[in-house]
Write a structure and sequence with these properties.
- This protein is an alpha/beta fold.
- It has 11 helices and 13 strands.
- The strands form 4 sheets. The chain has a 5-stranded mixed β-sheet with strand order 1-7-6-4-5, with helices on both faces. The chain has a 4-stranded mixed β-sheet with strand order 8-13-12-11, sandwiched between helices.
- Strand 12 and strand 13 form a beta hairpin.
- Helix 3 crosses helix 4 and helix 8 packs parallel to helix 9.
- The protein is globular.
- The two termini are 31 Å apart.
- Bound molecules: oxa(dethia)-CoA.
């Protein structure tokens, strides 16, 4: 078999959620909202908030260390590191480089960030897979790590109730066996709708000034209704197109692990695919929307809960700022616990 035909599978998975839990009741004391509104409109009951000095690279390093330890491997075994984040530790260098140093990874490996917001983990998985299929890299860490609490406007009730912090890491490995691991995928983007979900200030086009900070241009802003509409359409379409690519139907997929943005988005996508919500595991209630971290967090939980079994077909699907979206169909390879 030529190296171009190598399969890439998730050998191990690890997660990290910050210790601090922020409940809907606490939020109700901060902005004009209620536990009832948040739960009914989003499905969220609480979210985790990172400590002041706890950066995405710290959370990502902890998730990675768990994945490596579960696999019985060490940092020296990692040949490639990709971090998906929309809340990098600093504008530069990349969060991946900071995480490389914290984890003690080798210096002869590529380390870089992928910026695709909530679709970041799906994007990064695909980039890693394509780099690994050549045979140049045997093992990769793909990490989604976010500190959304640092870009949320805590006085804006339309967004601050939705987001949370956390990290998840997938340790990928190549295999000569065909048909295992990451099977089919699709990625897409629409920059014409960038303003539906964005942070307007702080970049090189619009560096922060006293005025921009007073105007709140350092914060995430979202047109929730429009984002919701796009999310449902594009996530359902992406699943359908990836299934068609693989010559499969939604009936053959054991589990759908979507980006955890809003329980009503998940219900609408499940409805469009004609799939019961019992095949859409969700941890939204306890974590809220953790952007690039949400899929690995949900995947790990579904596996720990004993839902996902060796050989199961799983569809992961995401949507986020950019706009961006992506879906990956994979065959689960039971990882070590
Ligand atoms: O990761 C991908 C990116 N994000 C998403 O996928 C989020 C997509 N959008 C959504 O999840 C939903 O649109 C939201 C949860 C953000 C909002 O739900 P909605 O059902 O679209 O509510 P709405 O924006 O239409 O607001 C309904 C009402 C409004 O009041 P009026 O104008 O009807 O008087 C809002 O001002 O609810 C009000 N409202 C709130 N009330 C209490 C908005 N936020 C809150 C709040 N608490 N936190």
């Amino acid at each position: 078999m030529s190296s171009a035909e190598l399969s890439v599978f998730i050998r191990a998975i690890g997660v990290h959620a910050p210790a601090r839990t922020l409940t809907n009741a606490e939020l109700s004391g901060m902005v004009d909202t209620s536990d009832e509104w948040i739960k009914t409109r989003s499905g969220i009951a609480e979210r985790r908030i990172a400590a002041a000095g706890e950066a995405p690279s710290d959370m990502g390093a902890k998730a990675s260390a768990q994945a490596l330890s579960r696999a019985g491997l060490t940092p020296a075994d990692v040949d490639l590191l990709i971090v998906a984040t929309m809340t990098p530790d600093v504008p530069f260098p990349s969060t991946a480089c900071l995480l490389q140093a914290k984890l003690g990874l080798r210096r002869d490996i590529p380390c870089f960030d992928v910026s695709a917001a909530c679709s970041g983990f799906v994007y990064a998985l695909q980039v890693a897979k394509d780099m690994m299929r050549s045979g140049a890299y045997r093992r990769a860490l793909v990490i989604g790590a976010e500190k959304l609490s640092s870009v949320v406007d805590w006085s804006d009730r339309t967004t601050c109730v939705l987001f949370g912090d956390g990290a998840g890491a997938a340790l990928l490995e190549t295999s000569p066996e065909p048909g295992v691991g990451l099977l089919a995928n699709l990625l897409g983007a629409d920059g014409n709708n960038a303003e539906l979900l964005h942070c307007a200030g702080g970049g090189s086009a619009s560096p922060h000034t006293g005025d921009s900070l007073r105007e709140g241009r350092q914060f995430l802003r979202m047109n929730g209704k429009e984002v919701f509409r796009h999310a449902v359409r594009v996530m359902a379409e992406s699943c359908e197109r990836v299934l068609a690519q693989a010559g499969l139907t939604s009936e053959q997929v054991a589990w759908f692990i979507p980006h955890q943005a809003n329980i009503r988005i998940l219900e609408a996508v499940a409805g469009q695919l004609n799939v019961g919500m019992d095949r859409f595991p969700s941890n939204l209630a306890r974590y809220g929307n953790t952007s690039a971290a949400s899929i690995p967090l949900a995947l790990e939980e579904a596996w720990q809960d004993g839902k996902i079994k060796h050989g199961d077909l799983i569809m992961i699907v995401a949507f986020g700022a950019g706009l961006t979206w992506g879906a990956t169909l994979l065959r689960w390879h039971e990882p070590p616990r």
